[in-house]
């Protein structure tokens, strides 16, 4: 049986580290780090996630604000709000919750956030810095996944890493972080021969949003599996992108869903906000 990588426990540790650093920050600087979360419309999942982020922010000792805007807000009015937050010295981190309504151009909104306050690491400047291997704000989910590999005692250097999914928010930055850590990286997508690629993976990271897409039998015995997927089944149960039962028979370590990568995303958002408040990277 595989070792279970307890993201919930690691995330609690990361948040405790941030909380201790906030105390030092207060002593040295007077104020506290501030995180502004912008939520547009009534997406029920977004509402739950934003509540979780605000709660975590308050627990570690940040100030936090939720800017809840109407579903029918214009693109221009949303951009104005983002620019106001850029100018606000008490706000160190800005997160615009995705997805945005269809009439909004998400890329333009992300690009409007000051790169120094872009605690999601989604701004083109930060994406560029990551691809160049230079310091910058890094996306929270891949950052959390890297930390979980470390916690599992898995050093990427020299290993074959396979990333399934090529999104700008998880797959691509994940592949770049693994590459920077000296893994040999393959990125898979819908045209890939998945069973064949997955069989090569010492490290497998899956972020596609298809319930139990990856069959346990495909895995290389001893692989370390990071499952970023979060899929709600009709019965309300959450499942990942990896068929967990069969996978845990072959893997040496695996993240559960829930309780794996999800809590790490929020913990790393706290770390990024502290970093932004401390003057960045
Ligand atoms: N600008 C932006 N930044 C984001 O980081 C962002 C976003 N938009 N839009 C939505 C996704 C999703 N996301 C999650 C964070 C934590 C959990 C999490 O903590 N999940 C728990 C509980 C899940 C449950 O029980 O519902 C778990 O996996 O154990 C999940 C999902 C951040 N996102």
TrEMBL record:
Binding of NADP(+), residues: 165-167
Entry GO terms, CC: cytosol
Segments passing through the bilayer: none
An individual GO BP term: purine nucleotide biosynthetic process
Tetrahydrofolate dehydrogenase/cyclohydrolase NAD(P)-binding domain span: 139-277
UniProt-listed SUPFAM superfamilies: Aminoacid dehydrogenase-like, N-terminal domain (SSF53223), NAD(P)-binding Rossmann-fold domains (SSF51735)
Coiled-coil residue windows: none
Limits of the Tetrahydrofolate dehydrogenase/cyclohydrolase catalytic domain: 5-120
Keywords of the record: Amino-acid biosynthesis, Histidine biosynthesis, Hydrolase, Methionine biosynthesis, Multifunctional enzyme, NADP, One-carbon metabolism, Oxidoreductase, Purine biosynthesis
InterPro entries associated with the record: Aminoacid_DH-like_N_sf, NAD(P)-bd_dom_sf, THF_DH/CycHdrlase, THF_DH/CycHdrlase_cat_dom, THF_DH/CycHdrlase_CS, THF_DH/CycHdrlase_NAD-bd_dom
Keyword Oxidoreductase set for record: yes
EC number: 1.5.1.5, 3.5.4.9
Keyword Transcription regulation: no
Catalytic activity: (6R)-5,10-methylene-5,6,7,8-tetrahydrofolate + NADP(+) = (6R)-5,10-methenyltetrahydrofolate + NADPH; (6R)-5,10-methenyltetrahydrofolate + H2O = (6R)-10-formyltetrahydrofolate + H(+)
This protein's pathway: One-carbon metabolism; tetrahydrofolate interconversion
Any Pfam family matching the protein: THF_DHG_CYH_C
Molecular function GO terms recorded: methenyltetrahydrofolate cyclohydrolase activity; methylenetetrahydrofolate dehydrogenase (NADP+) activity
NCBIfam families named in the record: PRK10792.1, PRK14186.1
Assembly with partners or alone: Homodimer.
Annotated family: Belongs to the tetrahydrofolate dehydrogenase/cyclohydrolase family.
Function noted in UniProt: Catalyzes the oxidation of 5,10-methylenetetrahydrofolate to 5,10-methenyltetrahydrofolate and then the hydrolysis of 5,10-methenyltetrahydrofolate to 10-formyltetrahydrofolate.
Protein name: Bifunctional protein FolD
Lineage: Bacteria, Pseudomonadati, Myxococcota, Myxococcia, Myxococcales
Name of the gene encoding the protein in the UniProt record: folD
